[in-house]
């Protein structure tokens, strides 16, 4: 309400705002993305007076043992107008893939949770594997399923198309392997295979994506190739998933302006339509808007090849849903599953697995984990080979690259506690987090900080020790190299440690003290750093360079085709 603080925070639980409440006291509407996020948050959390209490007994489902998936997955999700229980079904015959659509505030997300929670309550992680993607801002819906044993992969961020593609590639690779197993067993589908191989059953795979239209966008030319491959894999699942027990559950608020391939839509067997735009409803199911336009919050029109049924989906409040999830956790405690989890803000952690690998490899650094469902640690060994150094580059506005650099530094200390670490820090004062971490490490004596303006003689000493083959084992970090003014200006390094080293080696006093440049190889910042980069690794002296743009590398024309 003021110039300094124009936004007002609304606590949904303490307000009486109804659907599509207009927030007059703030300029949120000036920001389309923020406005959409706010309205979605309020609408989907609003009370649902039209929906009666939960009609599914989750207590009974979670208290007993798991059921086996024989020919079909059958999950109770609501009640018909006649009071009969309605099931959500996936099988290899007539209920293969499904599409769910409903505008904001109609109960679409609630219905998706019914499907997921019901499936996890009823079937074991050995029978059912879920791939979940939540493309809403912040991944607010599916984040509750982090670390669930049924969930093979969980994405709660739409900032990186590559992550989406990697998860789908994993499913595609598994389908390829399943095809080989079916052929080797002489069967045509997963039901026959599991009957023939009861001790090595294939689990059903269900891919669930909320706001799925994000996957089909292709307006960004840079990402068009990635979106095309995503579409191709989804089309492959739609056409071939039936026999292999791989099912699609796609959900969104609208399909307007979405380029969903016909191979996907034409292979959808079941449509679950909540209240939505008439054009969307009719595009998916002909003339269905006559029914969907009359639906209330929580009501769903289920359309398949046999019939149309309107039912009320189960309404399970978030607090109750979390209790059910806790019971599922207890029920699946003995099962193992390394879940692939991705959110843009996550930070690479050096856990026990990474520590063990680092110690095995000796001199090595860890920079993160692979962006695929295997999540294998990416570890770079530092070998005594020509020019075996590391460069980390990328825009560092939010210290993204610096986080990787610090992980590299910490992992090096784990792999070799005796390795010396020297740091030339050229980062700006705005890089507060990194600078504080460096200060803390220096205070503990784990690293030695070198002043960029006065480190010339130390660099000479390192270069001379390499030349004389008496170098200490070390890694030299140069952070923010594009801000290294002494290197950019190729400042002269006056005679210093390099002359002293030569004097000691030969055992006599020389006249080098009268020279202004000493060893010609080491009389400037560029020459000495180039020498260390080229020759240091063979003597156990490695360099880790952090830089914004490769074009600024050593301020020379290195980034050519050669």
Q: Please state the structural category.
A: alpha/beta
CA-based gyration radius: 30 Å
Number of E-state strands: 18
Distance between the termini: 59 Å
Mean pLDDT: 84
Globular, elongated, flat, extended or rod-shaped: what is the shape? elongated
**Fraction of residues in helix:** 25-40%
Runs with pLDDT <50, length 5+? 1-5, 17-24, 46-51, 497-518
Strand order of the largest sheet: 2-1-10-9-8-3-7-6-4-5-11
Main sheet properties = 11 strands, mixed
Describe the protein's architecture and organization.
It is built from 17 helices and 18 strands. The model is unreliable at 1-5, 17-24, 46-51 and 497-518 (pLDDT under 50). The chain has helices at 32-45, 58-63, 108-122, 161-185, 190-196, 224-244, 262-265, 278-284, 289-292, 318-331, 352-361, 400-415, 432-443, 456-467, 485-488, 497-506, 525-535; strands at 72-80, 85-91, 98-101, 128-134, 151-155, 204-210, 246-252, 270-273, 299-303, 308-313, 340-342, 364-369, 377-381, 390-393, 420-425, 448-450, 474-479, 541-547. The protein is α/β, with parallel strands linked by helices. α3 packs parallel to α10, α4 (161-185) runs parallel beside α6 (224-244) and α14 packs parallel to α16. 38% of the residues are buried.
């Amino acid at each position: 309400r003021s110039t300094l603080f124009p936004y007002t925070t609304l606590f949904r639980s303490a307000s009486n705002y109804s659907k599509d409440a207009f927030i007059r006291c703030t300029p949120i509407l000036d920001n389309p993305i923020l406005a959409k996020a706010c309205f979605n948050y309020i609408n989907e959390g609003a009370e649902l007076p039209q929906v009666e209490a939960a009609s599914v007994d989750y207590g009974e489902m979670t208290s007993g043992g798991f059921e086996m998936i024989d020919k079909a997955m059958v999950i109770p999700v609501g009640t018909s107008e006649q009071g009969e229980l309605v099931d959500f079904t996936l099988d290899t015959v007539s209920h293969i893939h499904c599409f769910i659509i409903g505008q904001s505030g109609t109960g679409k997300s609630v219905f998706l949770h019914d499907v997921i929670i019901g499936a996890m309550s009823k079937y074991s992680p050995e029978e059912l594997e879920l791939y979940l993607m939540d493309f809403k801002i912040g991944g607010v819906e599916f984040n509750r399923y982090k670390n669930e044993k049924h969930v093979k992969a969980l994405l709660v961020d739409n900032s990186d198309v590559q992550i989406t593609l990697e998860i789908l590639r994993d499913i595609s690779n598994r389908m390829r392997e399943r095809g080989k197993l079916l052929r080797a067993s002489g069967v045509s589908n997963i039901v026959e295979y599991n009957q023939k191989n009861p001790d090595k059953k294939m689990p059903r795979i269900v891919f669930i994506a909320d706001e799925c239209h994000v996957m089909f966008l292709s307006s960004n030319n840079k990402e068009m190739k990635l979106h095309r491959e995503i579409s191709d894999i989804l089309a492959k699942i739609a056409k071939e998933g039936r026999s292999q027990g791989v099912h699609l559950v796609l959900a969104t608020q609208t399909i307007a302006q979405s380029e969903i391939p016909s191979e996907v839509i034409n292979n959808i067997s079941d449509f679950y339509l909540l209240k939505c735009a008439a054009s969307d409803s009719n595009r998916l199911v002909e003339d269905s808007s006559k029914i969907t336009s009359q639906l209330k919050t929580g009501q769903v029109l289920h359309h398949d090849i046999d019939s149309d049924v309107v039912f009320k989906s189960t309404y399970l409040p978030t607090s109750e849903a979390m209790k059910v999830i806790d019971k599922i956790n207890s029920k699946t405690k003995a099962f193992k599953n390394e879940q692939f989890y991705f959110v843009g803000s996550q930070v690479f952690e050096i856990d026990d697995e990474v520590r063990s690998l680092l110690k095995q490899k000796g001199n090595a650094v860890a920079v993160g984990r692979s962006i695929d469902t295997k999540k294998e640690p990416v570890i770079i060994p530092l070998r005594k080979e020509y020019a075996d150094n590391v460069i980390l580059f990328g825009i560092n506005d939010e210290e993204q690259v610096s986080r990787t650099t610090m992980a590299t530094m910490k992992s090096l200390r784990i792999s070799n506690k005796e390795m010396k670490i020297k740091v030339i820090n050229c980062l700006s004062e705005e890089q507060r987090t990194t600078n504080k971490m460096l200060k803390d490490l220096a205070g503990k004596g784990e690293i030695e900080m070198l002043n960029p303006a006065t480190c010339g003689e130390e660099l000479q000493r390192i270069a001379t020790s390499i030349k004389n083959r008496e170098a200490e084992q070390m890694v030299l970090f140069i952070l923010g190299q594009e801000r290294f003014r002494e290197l950019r200006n190729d400042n002269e390094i006056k005679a210093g440690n390099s002359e002293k080293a030569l004097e000691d080696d030969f055992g006599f006093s020389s006249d080098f003290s009268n020279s202004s440049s000493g060893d010609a190889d080491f009389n400037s910042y560029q020459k000495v750093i180039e020498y260390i980069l080229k020759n240091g690794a063979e003597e156990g002296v490695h360099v880790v360079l952090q830089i914004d743009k490769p074009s600024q590398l050593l301020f020379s024309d290195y980034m050519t085709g050669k």
